[in-house]
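Priority: medium. Attachment 1 of 2:
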């Protein structure tokens, strides 16, 4: 009599635990005197998630970003980073601004060293790290150049190194590439994605460019027109990574996502223009 060998047919894989919340915005209202910019905003950004926020001009996108940074205090509600309530300017964030934020009297490497210097990192260690980050963003050999000696794209690379060298838990971006020409913008967007893929920090990007939001983000959140702006929609961007921001726009799924998000955003943009006419 032969002996049968029975193998388990249960091939189910364990479900991965959801990523922890790195940024939590809980019922936040931001007001300036009697003017209410945003009202009862609730948002959670997971650790390693790339969140893009879009909305009409004047809807409070930058206000929300500055509340995460601790530069503005909510009139109501709370903001937390990694479970710790935000109360004052934060040390665990990197901030990429729309305009150049480099000190013109300092060289590229001296600008990159500023964050570690404020954190009291020893001079030799911060110089070594700054050299590594400038090489990582493609600026080896440009360390002693001043900002006016660099192109717009090169200055943006210095700012990226400056924002990332301290190993922030959260990276905040306020339309960082809007001033660049389209070709340089694509190069910088791809460079950003390459650097982000290495360590996957939580990112909050605000932009007027819906194509940029879809090409870069894991999720796109739509804000209503202001005043008293609020979150009105959220879209998961289920496009594979790594991505090339120019090539991904040729994907039919990109076009479908654009159509769906624009259908949500368009009415709010029209309301915003009507209020300003």
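Attachment 2 of 2:
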């Amino acid at each position: 009599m032969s002996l049968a060998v029975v193998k388990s047919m249960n091939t189910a894989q364990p479900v991965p635990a959801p990523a922890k919340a790195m940024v939590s915005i809980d019922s936040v209202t931001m007001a300036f005197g009697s003017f209410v910019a945003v009202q009862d905003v609730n948002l959670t950004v997971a650790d390693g998630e790339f969140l893009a926020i879009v909305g009409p001009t004047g809807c409070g996108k930058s206000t929300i970003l500055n509340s995460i940074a601790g530069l503005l205090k909510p009139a109501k509600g709370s903001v937390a980073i990694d479970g710790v309530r935000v109360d004052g300017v934060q040390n665990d964030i990197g901030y990429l601004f729309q305009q150049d934020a480099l000190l013109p009297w300092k060289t590229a490497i001296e600008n990159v060293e500023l964050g570690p210097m404020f954190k009291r990192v020893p001079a030799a260690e911060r110089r070594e790290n700054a050299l590594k980050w400038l090489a990582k963003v493609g600026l080896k050999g440009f360390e002693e150049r001043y900002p006016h000696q660099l192109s717009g794209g090169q200055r943006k690379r210095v700012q990226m190194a400056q924002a990332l060298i301290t190993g922030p838990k959260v990276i905040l971006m306020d339309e960082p590439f809007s001033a660049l020409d389209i070709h340089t913008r694509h190069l910088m967007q791809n460079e950003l994605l390459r650097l982000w893929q290495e360590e996957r920090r939580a990112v909050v990007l605000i932009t007027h460019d819906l194509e940029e939001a879809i090409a870069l983000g894991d999720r796109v959140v739509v804000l209503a027109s202001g005043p008293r702006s609020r979150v009105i929609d959220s879209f998961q961007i289920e496009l594979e990574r790594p991505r090339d921001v120019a090539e991904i726009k040729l994907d039919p799924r990109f076009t479908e996502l654009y159509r769906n998000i624009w259908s949500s955003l368009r009415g709010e943009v029209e309301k915003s223009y009507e209020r300003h006419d």
